[in-house]
Design a protein that fits this description.
membrane, 14 helices, transmembrane, EmrE, transmembrane helix
Length: 321
């Protein structure tokens, strides 16, 4: 249950991204600065935490061993994940972005064949290519169906152009985030903790953010004070707290694709938290009856996902006794 709890808590902080990014867009801020400033502001917070743990030099040593892997997968996991999400905020409300983002539940499961899992055979552990966890995928599809119900009433309010410019970037992000996160877990080999990995990926993705900064200066000029402050809040809540919690949760189950899929499925709660945030901060209308049906689908799917995962853990423990 601990990985599931950490995942749900992470989704609460992640939800602030969708609400605040939309808030900044409504106020006239550029999506470029929403993306860039978050990762710039994350560095001092993370550096302080890792410094207090006396892990800075150990992290530098790990990056030096595989610098190109850090650069590539950090850019995929952070750059190609967050920049498209911020771009999407310019073309759709927070509920649409949070809802469409749940496609990552399926994306993460479909990526399983690209990775190897450690399986015990006899007295030794061997690496076996991952398989798509169809049972987990079934529960994930159930959750996704709930998300569709939650958004079905709102879809008619969005133009086709806005829908395309909002959905396509999120589809890219939905594959980039789990791909970059899982590849970095392979690169790190469990030698560093979640905060060190988060700091290392943030630093390694800086070349991408520098390029985007140059684009932003020519396209939109310097960011406003309000957007800077709000980006700082997003960096702390979503960039530091949420990502560290999510990394900690995935680290606990990184060798089991079914359990890993269950943790990634907890991010469906972002829809609920984002909806609540929009109602409170942006005066969004309350959910309709159909939306509440969707909420029941999401919660029911999560309970089934968690139950199946814990049942498997208990079975494995009984066999090992």
């Amino acid at each position: 249950m601990r990985p599931i709890f950490l995942g749900i808590l992470a989704s609460l902080f992640f939800a602030s991204t969708f609400v605040l990014n939309r808030f900044m867009e409504v106020e006239g801020g550029s999506w470029v600065w929403s993306a860039v400033l978050r990762f710039v502001f994350m560095i001092p917070f993370l550096l302080f935490i890792v410094y207090r743990k006396r892990k800075v030099f150990h992290l530098i040593k790990q990056i030096k061993q595989k610098p190109w892997s850090w650069l590539l997968w950090s850019t995929v996991g952070f750059g190609l994940f967050y920049a498209p999400l911020c771009f999407a905020a310019a073309y759709g409300p927070g509920w649409l972005i949070a809802g469409t983002w749940q496609i990552t539940i399926l994306s993460g499961s479909l990526l399983a064949p690209l990775f190897y899992a450690r399986v015990k055979r006899g007295s030794e552990y061997v690496l076996v290519r991952g398989r798509i966890p169809y049972k987990s995928l079934l529960f994930s599809s159930f959750i996704l169906l709930g998300v569709v119900f939650m958004q079905i009433d709102h879809a008619t309010e969005i133009s086709l152009r806005s829908m395309i410019l909002c959905v396509l970037p999120i589809l890219i992000a939905s594959f980039a985030y789990p791909l970059g996160n899982r590849k970095m877990m392979e690169v790190c080999e469990g030698k560093i903790g979640p905060y060190e990995r988060l700091l290392g990926m943030t630093i390694a993705s800086m070349p991408f953010w520098v390029i985007l900064t140059i684009y932003g200066l020519f396209k939109a000029g310097v960011p406003s004070v309000n957007q800077t402050v709000q980006s700082l809040i997003v960096a702390l809540l979503s960039g530091v707290f949420a990502t560290a919690l999510f990394f900690a949760a995935t680290d606990l189950v990184k060798h089991d694709m079914q359990k890993l899929g269950a943790v990634e499925a907890t991010q469906s709660f972002e829809v609920l938290f984002a909806l609540l945030g929009e109602v409170l901060l942006l005066s969004a209308p309350l959910p309709t009856a159909i939306s509440w049906i969707g909420i029941l689908f999401v919660v029911g799917g999560m309970m089934a996902q968690s139950y199946a995962s814990n049942r498997k853990i208990k079975k494995e423990q009984s066999l090992s006794v």
